[in-house]
Design brief:
The complex is a heterodimer of chains A (317) and B (251). With 317 residues, chain A is mostly helical. Chain A is built from twelve helices and no strands. In chain A, helix 1 (2-30) packs antiparallel against helix 12 and helix 6 crosses helix 8. The longest helix of chain A is centred in the C-terminal third of the chain and has 39 residues, at 223-261. The N and C termini of chain B lie far apart (47 Å). In chain B, helix 3 runs parallel beside helix 5 (149-161). The longest helix of chain B has 18 residues, at 179-196. Chain B has 251 residues and is of the alpha/beta class. In chain B, a hairpin with a 7-residue loop joins strand 1 and strand 2 (33-46). The chains are: A mainly alpha (317), B alpha/beta (251).
Chain lengths: 317, 251
């Protein structure tokens, strides 16, 4: 428990640093926002008035403090172009992307762990070459290309969904929305399943060389028993870390797939907002993504520590 | 089978009859070139005996252990067991225990493999065997990396004994331990032989250890048993040139 608390404190500290760096970075790139907003037409008085209105005449650290405080009170600032509260703007898109990431992650986890164990069993057989080639292919094909193929085949040919026809909200047509999200998730998952399987396979092959496997066999275990009872748990810590990385990357990866399928998720929204130089919105999304990555890492550490207490970060033993 | 041979067989735990063994490497369907390791190996282990198997590395000691355990098939000859499946204790207690689990799991697992023991029976046996190897019950929740070398080797011995075999193969069981711990583990193994009515095949390159614990000794060189006999006799008056050299080196 002590370890869990320490790890959560570390997480909060990391988030604090990440949010500060993000705020600083946007301070540096965004330049004089008031001037930009008003353009060359703005008089110095108007600029000064707008700066005051946006709070830009306050000291840097104070503004950071207010912005950070806003995160906890739900006041995330205001978009330059859209007067809606930021949360109403981002929330639905974040929801869509989280569902996409959750489905992908479920697919990756449920498919790649058994497949990784299975693919170990092919090692050395003539089928192994075929498996390697297929694995490479799956890793090499970019998700957007699979997305285009899926849109054509499952969308246009089989008419399972309407390409570019994502409903205005998930509630408006849950069936259509979930079908689209499912196929997008499959696209997003395929290369990552291939990577996880490859990683898992090499881990399992490494574990199978170890002496405890010989012991297990001598105690009467067959290959299946050795794999499932002895090797799986030892292979899992590396896989959990890898899956956590994948979980972190899924949000970034979803940007492209959301474009292909026309899914109104966070990725698609982020691209549009970057184009529009809407810094408050971009900044908020960047912090959310960074928190997501840090959180995934922490969860992986906590799970690994449950599996294998020797892995306690900075622990004594 | 007449009365006489029956009597004789009940006294034996293991017969290795003119065994040739080795490995087939590579090739489709395991039909690759055969590398013979053991040549016409022939010996018996009698009830209650500790038989030492000495020889330098590469002499075929581990191959013989694998053959006896059934992990490898002999090319010719026969291996006859007069006890249930023998168990093995490995040399390196640091790597031969699964690092991901605690002692209780490690000891219970060989019972689970055979599935005929219920939970209560398994727990009872685990506690019983733990006491036999002189470990406190608090070690049950420890993982191997929390134990010392001697404690780990006690856990290894306990795991080998949990299914109550009558015959144990000990492959360099104390070579990884320092001398005082060696003596404790050897004493434990001797006590267990008495208490649990065990026989051992004790593989070692350390003649001092063999002298301490074994009743009889087999000397293996290049896959051939060049000498065998009572430990005292072999050590006092070695017949084969190789045995003499081994003994001289151990002085």
């Amino acid at each position: 428990m002590n370890y869990v608390i320490r790890r959560i404190l570390m997480l909060l500290l990391t988030m604090l640093i990440v949010s500060f760096l993000t705020f600083l970075a946007f301070e540096l790139v965004s330049g004089d926002v008031a001037q930009t907003k008003l353009g060359t037409e703005g008089t110095p008085e108007q600029v000064a008035a707008l700066r005051h209105e946006l709070g830009l005449d306050q000291p840097f650290l104070l503004r950071y403090g207010q912005w950070l405080g806003g995160f906890f009170t739900g006041d995330l600032g205001v978009s330059y172009y859209n007067p809606q509260p930021m949360w109403e703007l981002i929330g639905p898109k974040l929801g869509v992307t989280l569902i996409l990431a959750a489905i992908s992650f479920l697919l990756i986890t449920l498919i790649s762990i058994p497949l990784g164990l299975l693919s170990y069993r092919l090692a050395g057989s003539p089928l192994d070459g075929l498996r390697t080639a297929f694995n490479q292919l799956c890793m090499a094909v970019p998700p957007f290309f699979i997305g285009i193929l899926f849109s054509w085949f499952f969308g246009i040919t089989l008419k399972l969904f309407i390409p570019e026809g994502f409903p205005s909200s998930i509630r408006a047509n849950p069936g259509e929305a979930m079908t689209q999200l499912f196929f997008a998730a499959v696209c997003l998952s395929i290369p990552r399943i291939a990577m996880t399987v490859r990683m898992m396979r090499s881990t399992v092959i490494g574990e199978m060389q170890k002496a405890y496997v010989r012991t297990a066999i001598s105690r009467g275990n067959d290959r299946r028993g050795v794999l499932l009872r002895h090797v799986l748990k030892n292979s899992l810590t590396g896989t959990v870390t890898f899956l956590a990385q994948t979980l972190a990357e899924l949000i970034g990866g979803s940007i492209v797939v959301e474009q292909v399928f026309g899914i109104p998720g966070l990725g698609r929204f982020l691209v549009a907002e970057i184009r529009a130089l809407d810094y408050p919105v971009v900044q908020t999304i960047v912090v959310i993504l960074a928190f997501w990555v840090v959180l995934a890492g922490t969860v992986a550490d906590l799970i690994n520590q449950r599996i294998d207490p020797r892995l306690r970060l900075g622990g004594a033993k | 089978m007449n009365e006489h041979t029956k009597q004789q067989n009940s006294d034996l735990v293991l017969e290795v009859r003119h065994v040739n063994g080795g490995y087939r490497k590579g090739g489709l369907l395991g039909r690759g070139a055969f590398k013979q390791i053991l040549f016409d190996v022939d010996f018996q282990v009698r009830h209650g005996e500790i038989v030492g198997l000495v020889g330098e590395s590469g002499s075929g000691k581990s191959t013989l252990a694998k053959l006896i355990l059934g992990l490898l098939r002999p090319e010719s000859g026969q291996i006859v067991h007069h006890t249930p499946r023998p168990q093995i204790i490995f040399q390196d207690p640091y790597s031969s225990l699964n690092p991901a689990y605690d002692v209780e799991w490690i000891l219970e697992e060989p019972l689970k493999v055979y599935g005929k023991y219920d939970r209560a029976e398994r727990k009872r046996r685990v506690r019983d065997i733990l006491a036999r190897v002189e470990l406190d019950e608090r070690f049950l929740s420890c993982r191997p990396d929390e134990l010392s070398g001697g404690q780990r080797q006690r856990v290894s011995i306990a795991a080998a004994l949990i299914r109550r075999p009558r015959f144990l193969i000990a492959d360099e069981p104390v070579s990884a331990l320092d001398v005082t711990v060696q003596a404790q583990v050897l004493r434990l193994m001797r006590n267990l032989r008495e208490e649990l009515d065990l026989s051992y095949l004790f593989i070692s390159h350390d003649l001092n250890v063999v002298y301490q614990i074994c009743d009889r000794v087999l000397v293996l060189k290049g896959g051939v048993i060049v000498e065998q006999g009572e430990v005292e006799e072999v050590f006092r008056a070695p017949q084969h040139e190789y045995t003499k050299r081994l003994l001289a080196a151990a002085e």
